[in-house]
Design brief:
The protein is mostly helical. It has 16 helices and two strands. It has four domains: 92 residues, no CATH class; 115 residues; 52 residues; 91 residues, no CATH class. Helix 2 crosses helix 3, helix 6 runs antiparallel to helix 7 and helix 9 packs across helix 10.
């Protein structure tokens, strides 16, 4: 057929345009033939029907239109399902942010069931979980990320829509956190009331322990009845433990070597120290007659860094003052005479002492000041010189004290007990 059409091309004509005009009928015939073949194959693939036997063009077109309509509808349903699936996947990734991750659970997550040895299941607990809250800038950034992800997945959205959604979830997180915080405060106060009832003289340290017990019990998802019972039991147990510790410690007595009993005292007050009740241990030892330096040696330690720095400080030898005799000599803790502060250090000695104290507190910023004062006394430095230099360092901003050191300041305002005072205290006269 191609040869026939080419043969009919007038020989007098030439050029690409004339040749194209000549083969146009052939091109149209071939295109029609191949289109029909593609239709037959397409319908056959879709419906399994061979259209070769349908010669009537109207019937063929009607059948093809009907089949293609059905297939288009099916394809549209598949596309819709796929779009929904992709949207759900995108939303899942976007909502798995720190702010929105667990809001749907109402700020609570269920604990696992525990099975006791008897085969009984304990009920699942609703454990409160506070949610991180985004700042305004973080909300904007999260909205931008969500918008980009959804648009790239072919989903309809806008920055404004994503921003509003995230801001709403963020507000829900804030409200849920406030609700949880309110409950924590409520059960913390309940814990304090339990110990106050059994120990009206409980100090702030003890009350803080039971406040935390109440908060922790709520955070574990326990019921109100369980929390009440647990706090009451803990309060009774603590009161008994404190009484047992007090009865197990012998009062400070004349002739008793403190260095030999110090280790035993540490063991007996250790249950209080394990709970962080250092002031409670100090008060207990004070009631039994132990003086500040002894109390601190039991509940605390000077620290290795401070000790190493003190090694570099030589023992200070001060000149004798004429006419006053031994009363004005440097006196130690073991002296039986009252200590009278002196300010007769040489300029070099004063500078050495202050520099050493500065270095000690820089190397060990949390050093126990009462024990530190005791070590300086062993170096021949009286309590007033120590306190004056410490005050200057604090006022000049060279040393910053923590809460414990500020509490120790009250003790530093008074001179340490000398030998005579210790004897009188042992005899319960002082």
């Amino acid at each position: 057929m191609q040869a026939r059409y080419i043969a009919n091309v007038p020989q007098s004509k030439s050029g690409a345009q004339k040749f194209s005009e000549a083969i146009e009928p052939l091109r149209e015939s071939l295109e029609k033939h191949f289109n029909q073949q593609r239709e037959n194959e397409a319908v056959k693939r879709l419906s399994g029907v061979d259209l070769q036997g349908l010669q009537d063009p109207n019937l063929r077109n009607a059948f093809i239109a009907d089949e293609l309509s059905v297939r288009r509808e099916e394809r549209a349903q598949k596309l819709a399902l796929e779009k929904s699936r992709r949207a759900a996947e995108v939303n899942k990734n976007i909502n798995a942010t720190p702010t929105t991750k667990e809001i749907a659970a109402g700020g609570f997550s269920k604990g696992k069931e525990n099975i006791s040895g008897k085969g009984e299941k304990t009920p699942e607990r609703n454990i409160p979980r506070t949610q991180p809250v985004l700042t305004h800038d973080e909300i904007i950034q999260a909205a931008q990320n969500a918008t980009e992800q959804k648009l790239s997945a072919g989903l309809d959205t806008s920055f404004e829509n994503e921003y509003n959604n995230i801001a709403q979830l963020n507000q829900q997180a804030e409200l849920q956190n406030e609700k949880i915080k309110g409950k924590q405060l409520e059960y913390g106060k309940l814990g304090e009331s339990k110990i106050d009832k059994l120990m009206p003289d409980a100090n702030d340290e003890i009350r803080a322990i039971f406040n935390k017990k109440g908060e922790d019990a709520y955070n574990e998802g326990k019921t109100e009845a369980e929390i009440n019972a647990e706090l009451s039991q803990d309060a009774r147990k603590f009161k008994n433990t404190l009484a047992n510790i007090r009865s197990g410690i012998a009062p400070l007595a004349k002739g008793r070597n403190f260095e030999k009993t110090k280790k035993d005292l540490k063991v007996k007050v250790q249950p209080l120290l394990d709970l962080g009740l250092y002031d409670t241990a100090r008060n207990l030892l004070s009631e039994l007659g132990y003086y500040p330096e002894q109390r601190e040696e039991v509940v605390s330690d000077l620290g290795e860094n401070a000790k190493k720095e003190l090694v570099s400080l030589p023992k200070i030898e001060r000149p004798k003052t004429k006419g006053m005799g031994h009363l004005w000599e440097p006196l130690s803790y073991e002296s039986g005479m009252p200590e009278i502060p002196r300010n007769d250090y040489t300029p070099e000695q004063s500078e050495t002492i202050k520099n050493n104290l500065r270095n000690v507190l820089q190397k060990d910023p949390t050093a126990n000041l009462i024990l530190l004062r005791q070590e300086y006394d062993k170096k021949g430095i009286d309590w007033q010189k120590f306190k004056d230099d410490l005050n200057e360092l604090v006022m000049d901003g060279e040393v910053k004290l923590n809460d414990d050191q500020f509490n120790q300041f009250d003790t530093l305002e008074q001179p340490p007990l000398n030998g005579l005072e210790k004897i009188l205290k042992n005899l319960r006269i002082l």
